[in-house]
């Protein structure tokens, strides 16, 4: 291998380690969108790309676009990338692997073949996880021209508009950066860790994603009455938490009925006032449910709404609101077929699979042919600090991405 490519790989690996260190809080990675950790990570990426003499722009949602301009500037770019945000106490690879794996591929192609025929673009989407504000995929949705996110707040009451304005202006002021929303690309390929156990269980290195599950997220509110823990008789209490735990348990059972592959998660619980000697007056909890078929989600949503309504009692009211409704999405079959040939040529036996995690690819697929490459997650762990992918598997995914970008942008 030419020495230059080895140097490039080491430099990208250094950037990865630097970004990881920026947001490690001893429990896990925390790069919630528009927080100082997130700004520092996007800044590190920008500085690196500017030093590499790549063309860098930042849009008004804080998504970073790194271009290696092609000879035919009139043709749309060939794009890759993923998201820079994490969940709370997340792992090191979710999102960041796709951003820096894309950068590594782009630089290796430049080192080896020089200027591409078509522009190569690496995208670091601002937000995908929905972990800070009640919105998911806002980075790719903005790029795709699908939504305008405004007027929502995080748990601390900070509005997305003010958080975004402050954070994005910091990025747009970085030397060498232009403020723009680039044209949509000719194709989008997202490299990502699998986040589940299939590849690792089967001892396979590469997954090719044919579809992404649909997902719906809800917020359920139970309102009872706060009162004294020592003086209020048990039979007159309006305990919102007792209602919530019974309801959650019932929902967990109901979720097994429509289809064994339906997933159901209550991951967020807010108890108010959340102190030991006061009967909880209010509980808010999240529901996340997913399936590859929308009709299964329809069936479960009806059961969910009925169960929430039936949980009302004298002095207890309930409400439910849906804040995510994403349909299952098929990805581009021709790109998958091309990657299957390339993967086989590289010596892999790829597994064609459905993704149970949501991805920016489901948004990008609405505006351009889109495909995904998965590499194994050790023991299937993700959205947790123990998230891990073996170095050889990380390299394999980047090698396939590099081959795919080469095929698309140089031939
Ligand atoms: N790749 C992800 O972890 N995505 C996550 N985020 C969204 N928005 O789907 C998820 O929950 O699956
Ligand atoms: Zn994630
Ligand atoms: Zn992700």
From TrEMBL:
Work out whether the entry's keyword set contains Metal-binding. yes
Q: Which Gene3D superfamilies match?
A: 3.30.70.360, Zn peptidases (3.40.630.10)
A Pfam family: Peptidase_M20
Q: What cofactors does the UniProt entry give for this protein?
A: Zn(2+)
Q: Which domain of life is it from?
A: Bacteria
Q: How is the cofactor bound?
A: Binds 2 Zn(2+) ions per subunit.
Molecular-function GO term, any one: hydrolase activity, acting on carbon-nitrogen (but not peptide) bonds, in linear amidines
Q: Which residues bind allantoate?
A: 217, 277, 290
> Binding residues for Zn(2+) 2, per the UniProt record?
94, 129, 383
What are the binding positions for Zn(2+) 1 in this chain?
A: 83, 94, 192
Q: Where is the Peptidase M20 dimerisation domain?
A: 214-313
UniProt keywords, alphabetically: Hydrolase, Metal-binding, Zinc
Q: Output the InterPro entries linked to this UniProt entry.
A: Amidase_Cbmase, Bact_exopeptidase_dim_dom, Peptidase_M20, Peptidase_M20_dimer
Q: Does the keyword Hydrolase feature in the UniProt annotation?
A: yes
Q: Which PANTHER family match?
A: ALLANTOATE AMIDOHYDROLASE (PTHR32494:SF5), ALLANTOATE DEIMINASE-RELATED (PTHR32494)
Question: What family is this protein classified in?
Answer: Belongs to the peptidase M20 family.
Q: What is this protein called?
A: N-carbamoyl-L-amino acid hydrolase
From which organism does this entry originate?
Secundilactobacillus collinoides
């Amino acid at each position: 291998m030419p020495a230059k490519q080895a140097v490039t790989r080491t430099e990208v690996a250094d950037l990865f380690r630097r970004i990881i260190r920026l947001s490690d809080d001893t429990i896990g990675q925390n790069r919630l969108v528009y927080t100082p950790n997130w700004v520092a990570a996007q800044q590190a990426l920008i500085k690196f790309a500017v030093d590499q003499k790549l063309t860098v722009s930042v849009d008004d949602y804080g998504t970073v676009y790194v271009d290696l301009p092609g000879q035919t500037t009139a043709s749309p770019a060939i794009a890759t990338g993923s998201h820079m945000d994490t969940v709370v106490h997340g792992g090191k690879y979710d999102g960041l692997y796709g951003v820096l794996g894309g950068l590594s591929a782009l630089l290796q192609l430049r080192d080896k073949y020089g200027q591409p025929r078509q522009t190569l673009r690496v995208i670091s989407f601002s937000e995908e996880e929905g972990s800070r504000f009640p919105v998911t995929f806002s980075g790719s949705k903005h790029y795709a021209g699908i939504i305008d996110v405004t007027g929502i707040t995080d748990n601390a009451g900070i509005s997305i508009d003010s958080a975004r304005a402050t954070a994005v202006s910091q990025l747009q002021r970085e030397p060498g950066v232009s403020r723009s929303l680039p044209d949509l690309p000719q194709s989008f390929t997202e490299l990502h860790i699998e986040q589940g156990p299939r590849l690792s269980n089967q001892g396979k290195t590469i997954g090719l994603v044919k579809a992404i599950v649909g997902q719906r997220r809800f917020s359920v509110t139970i309102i009872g009455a706060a009162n004294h823990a020592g003086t209020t008789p048990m039979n007159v209490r309006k305990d919102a938490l007792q209602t919530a735990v019974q309801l959650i348990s019932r929902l967990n059972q109901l979720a097994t009925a429509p289809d064994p592959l339906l997933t159901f998660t209550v991951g967020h619980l807010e108890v108010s006032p959340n102190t030991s000697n006061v009967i909880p007056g209010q509980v808010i909890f999240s529901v996340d449910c997913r399936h590859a078929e929308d009709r299964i989600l329809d069936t479960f949503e009806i059961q969910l709404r009925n169960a929430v309504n039936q949980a009302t009692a004298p002095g207890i009211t309930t409400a439910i609101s849906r804040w995510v409704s994403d349909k299952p999405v098929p990805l581009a079959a021709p790109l998958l077929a091309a990657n299957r040939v390339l993967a086989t040529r590289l010596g892999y036996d790829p597994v064609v699979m459905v993704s149970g995690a949501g991805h920016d690819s489901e948004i990008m697929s609405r505006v351009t042919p889109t495909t995904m490459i998965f590499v194994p997650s050790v023991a299937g762990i993700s959205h947790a600090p123990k998230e891990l992918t073996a170095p050889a598997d990380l390299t394999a995914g980047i090698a396939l991405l590099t081959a795919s970008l080469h095929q698309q942008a140089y031939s």
